[in-house]
Amino acid sequence: MTFRTRFAPSPTGFLHIGGARTALFCHLYARHLGGEWLLRIEDTDQERSTPEAVAAIFAGLNWLGLHPDGEPVFQSKNQARHLAAAHQLLAMGKAYRCYCTREELESMRSEQREKKEKPRYDGRCARRVDFSGIADRPYVIRFKTPPEGKTTWEDLIQGSISFANTELDDLILVRSDGLPTYNLAVVVDDHDMGITHVIRGEDHISNTPRQIPLFQALGWSVPLYAHMPLLHGADGAKLSKRHGAVSVLNYRENGFLPEAVNNYLVRLGWSHGEQEIFTMAEMESLFDIRDVGRSAAIFNQSKLEWLNGHHIRSSRQDRLAVVLVDHLRLIGIENPDLTLVAAVVPLFQERAKTMVEMAEKARFFFVEDVRPYDMKAIEKYCKPDLLPALAHLITELATLTEWQDSFLQAAFDRTLQAHDLKMGQLAQPVRIALTGTPVSPGIHEVVLVLGQQKSLHRLQAGLAFFQESIHGVS
RNA sequence: GUCCCCAUCGUCUAGCGGCCUAGGACGCUGGCCUCUCACGCCGGUAACACGGGUUCGAUUCCCGUUGGGGACGCCA
Question: Which of A126, A145, A370, A452 has its CB surrounded by the most CB atoms within 10 Å?
Answer without folding.
Answer: A145
